[in-house]
Amino acid sequence: MRTLDGECPLANTVLWFNESQRFLAVPDGAVAEAVTALLLDPGRGPVLVLGTLWRDTFATLTAEKDGSVRSPTAALLNPATVIG
Length: 84
Description:
Blueprint: E1 13-17, H1 21-24, H2 30-40, E2 47-51, H3 55-62, H4 72-77
Parallel strand pairs: 1-2
């Protein structure tokens, strides 16, 4: 997490999340919030974020929950480009 929270310079970096569910399928959404903050901060980029994620897990993490606030993970993943 130190890498994502601003302690390390990340300009011109590629972040690879292998088996992304290990980082993103957590109740508090801390990693998703940190990645979103990184991507939205023009002073820390450009940064490319890539990861692998099973389709069924992607669907679960991005599903709209009736009557609830959208999770940080869903907010991060919904605009993602799915390849393959």
